[in-house]
Amino acid sequence: MVTIEQVARQAGVSVATVSRTLNNSPAVRPATARQVRQAVETLGYVPNQSARNLRRNESQVILALAPNFSNPYYSRILTGIGDRAWELEYSVLVCNTLGHANSERRFLKMMESHQADGAILLGCHWDYSWLARFAQRSHIVQCCEYVPDLDCPSVAIDNYAATREMVAYLRQLGHSRIAMIGADNQYISTRLRRQAYLDVMAQEALEVPENWYRLADADYSFASGQEAARALLAAVPRPTAIFCVSDILALSVISAAQELGLEVPGDLTVTGFDDVDYTTMVHPYLTTVAQPCHEMGRRSVDLLLDGIQNEQAALSACAFLPHRLMKRESAAPPKNTI
User: Which tens digits make up the pLDDT trace of 169-180?
Assistant: First the structure.
């Protein structure tokens, strides 16, 4: 195994100069740095990364805390995190929290013992006030969900604007009986989408009967979506369109409608949110809001490492990435139904 001393002899410099060069120190003159790097390449020297990290109190590991691995929405974000971390020579430890605050706190404590340099949280509840004490002493980025007014970087889309765009599109198609399926969780995205739906309906002077809003479970499960859909489709008058806060729920509505002999979009328009791969696997292709999930994951890593490497980085930096309305087969003008 080639040692750093051998590199120093080959380059004709001190061991300290080799170390400074490998650490990209500006104190090393460019000509000397080139000389050292040539020696490293000639000898095939591989730095002991573990020892370097130990001296720096770094692990080169970042945590990615996700509430649910089975949801394809989270898996696409995690892929983006992994891809970007790999490019920057960091490892990612992916942790399944099941949406439990105690699990999240336990994983975050790994940073205190230098087992990880920072963390990306994919499932922050909007009322996570306890996260502030971790954010004050550790490097954390919130991805897709975030705590309002918390001084902690975040990456998301504008959920309120995206929902307004979708509900306005349903109005343009001629729908006035528009129902919604939300989720029984504490995510800021769920609250913003609900509020945007209500605001558009109020702006259009459209009634929202209490039984036109149903909750699926916290994890947006297919079974809970079917249960919510059956309740909505039993309402009198029946909604002609259902806006869902996730694609999985929207697909469950289509399934429930078809079981009842209803055509989508002929008898019922259904829309989702996220644009996961399943949306175009079977007909009708789902009208939905596309989120740049992979890019959200990549941007989260960049924000996190900016904070780790630059203490002056803005703590409250918030990146809103663009969304897109995907108009597909599951949405059409309403029939004259009762």
Answer: 999 999 999 999
